[in-house]
Amino acid sequence: MKIAIISSGFLPVVDGVTITVFQRIQKLSQLGHQVLLFCPDYSALPTIYPHWKDYTGDILPGVRVINLDSTAFMGVDFERNVSQKSYQMVLEELEQFQPEIIHVDEPERLWLGFLKRPGIDFSKQYNIPCVSFFHSNLMEYLEDYLPLPSVIIAGIQFLLKFHFRWTYNGYNATLTASSSSAKKLVKVGLHNVIYGNLLGIDLEQFNPHKREDNFFAKHYHLSNVDDKVKLIFLGRLTPDKGWKFTLKALAKIQELIDLDQVSFIIAGDGELKDEIAQNFKFFTANIHFLGRLEPSQVAGLLANSDIHITTSEKETRGLTILEAFASGIPVLAPAAGGVIDSIESGKNGLLFTPKNADDFAKKLKVLVENSELREQMGQQGRETVQDCSWDEAVQNLLEIWKQQIEQK
């Protein structure tokens, strides 16, 4: 099959979208498919992404990556989005490639750059299907980034719903890997939603057997960490990841938990790093910033931590949650968004009431003070994702693509 993928992001950026796209094209390459991938250009950020050249051009058999002219996105220095003028290159390359199907990841974000729904015009001209994939709750991010009264934010979000519907309903199908997201999309007014098991985990890479003695001393030169309960926060240090709530909850955490027993491990980078550091220093010295990680570092980090914490209420599925489960550690998260598709509270992790610092601190206390419970939940988490392979996820995606092609 000849597949064109237009994605809002790709490696060397490390997030749920980019890892998903990379795993997908790896499997497609192994299966003998031809893939043309369009994504932003990261060459303007060589100090942040020194290995950007590894992810452009012919990176795998049958896979070619084309980087499009790009600009900064939402004022975040390490994020890029395609430019309006770059869409002409997309059309020219599609003309030469002649795909059987076009797949678009995060079309609403791409629209902000292209100022058009990517892929649809070409697909109509050549009578081929063009499908979208819903990854992120971008509309909900407004309240995190715009310092406006909530009533104004709500009004803007109401208006954006019309644009959101218009964007996604223009595609032959809107795919999602989250059942709760699928219900939300239908409720918003999308009539082309297809839910499926479209996310996977590399169970060999993410594995409890990667746990080793003195891991943090050996690999990160951190003393007095390995003997503590290690709380791992993994992701961007940006407003949409729930950091405002986390910082407000620190006082309550200190009331209930002996902070000398724990180490806060923060893996990621972003605009809030200094603010997070300043707030934490009033409560504990046991906080360690590891910065932006290479994808190969994540598995070892998770396997050698004790609890994965996310306070984001806006995840669509939460790939890091599945990675934590595969690594054999429990997850603490709010009962909101797509994380509820994966976390069975009391079995493979704990869910706390959103925006409730008391409940968050109480649930964290339970996990911190009960190593046997953590171990049991870690084992259950591993079982939760035992059947979530990338082989199966990509086969499911191929079946959807084939159905869309046949319907044309």
TrEMBL record:
Glycosyl transferase family domain: which residues? 225-383
Alphabetized GO MF terms: glycosyltransferase activity
Broad EC category: transferase
One matching Pfam family, short form?
A: Glyco_transf_4
Keyword list (alphabetical) reads:
Glycosyltransferase, Transferase
UniProt-listed InterPro entries: Glyco_trans_1, Glyco_trans_4-like_N, Glycosyltransferase_grp1
Q: Which Gene3D superfamilies match?
A: Glycogen Phosphorylase B
The protein, known as = Glycosyltransferase MJ1178
Native source species? Planktothrix pseudagardhii
